[in-house]
């Protein structure tokens, strides 16, 4: 691996100096990388009227949302709180797509009151929406296309047995309900999963919508969701965004011809925009030899980066503070009182207690899935932008853990 693959600095800012300044563990994001990814997607779809709706849940820090907005992208929000974060970041309601899954009716009303487009993902919800709003509030419908795709079963969400969306087999029922309430349907949506490598899968999802679109005369957009796979290690395959752009744009333009009007094409990338921008830095507490393996115990764990334990996700690891030692094989484990393996069987430059390790691809679903399990504090976040480090979230303190606890007299 070359030094570019295992960077010592981001935009000229030394990662070790950040570890000193902000202490560990620490999430660091390369803002330039995020903007470059947005530009790459815009270029890949340059022949169609593309709207990017960044999947906020991947990395919902307000400063990151601002950066994404400045680069020309809107957002997809899956909770009313994400909608509010987007608005705090300066998004207009019209730039936000709200894609909830089985939320309360109160939350739907709140989104409508804010002026945000709601993505309806059940027939009862279409009905309730119709009863209250009729044709006064345009909405989108999330279709479940019955496509099995995604890096693992937990992140495959467009198949027949998934809770998401309304089955394409129920299209007649959807149309009847929409007609009954004279709903104004502005968009159709699919999202089949995350870590999807094959460009053809995006085309298949789009085609399900093109076919369904003939039932809806007032469409303004077709939303093909997110799920573009990034490389998690050297040589790992990733979605060829140029290829997806080429084949989906071509089919989309043909569809618009048939439909009789030009529509917008929306995409909701999360990982593609932010995964590779992120570096998670953690200090080594101990190196422990056993008869079978050598464990490196870090001052962090699944409470800060749950993807390895939750999805068997692979995050590349390197030794930042000792890059040139002899290579040895280690299991990198966390301090949580559970099986807490961050990375197994990894060849790293010799690790000593006190060394700083870096886990890569930590931008997407890293901090955003972090918790206080074991009563641990969540780390700080730093954004590198225009060659400067900016603290964009403070490290939690003990007071944050007890702030909402109510102590009773016993
Ligand atoms: C509706 C929706 N859109 C977009 C995304 C973003 O997925 P990814 O981060 O894989 O691009 C998700 C997450 O799975 C999602 O549920
Ligand atoms: N959280 C998942 C991706 C999004 C799944 C939600 N639909 C991951 O870290 O891979």
Write a concise synopsis of the structure shown:
By secondary structure, the chain is of the alpha/beta class.
Biggest sheet details: 9 strands, mixed
Relevant CATH superfamily of the largest domain: Alanine racemase
Shape: globular
Strand segment count: 20
Q: What is the domain total for the residues? A: 2
**Beta-strand share of residues:** 15-25%
CATH class of the largest domain, anyone? Alpha Beta
Tally of DSSP helical segments: 12
Structural class designation? alpha/beta
Q: What is the averaged pLDDT score?
A: 97
**Ligands in the structure?**
pyridoxal-5'-phosphate, lysine
Unreliable stretches covering 5 or more consecutive residues: none
CATH architecture assignment name of the largest domain: Alpha-Beta Barrel
Q: What is the CATH T-level topology of the largest domain?
A: TIM Barrel
Helix content: 25-40%
Oligomer: single chain
Radius of gyration, taken over Cα atoms and rounded to an integer in Å = 23 Å
Distance between the termini: 59 Å
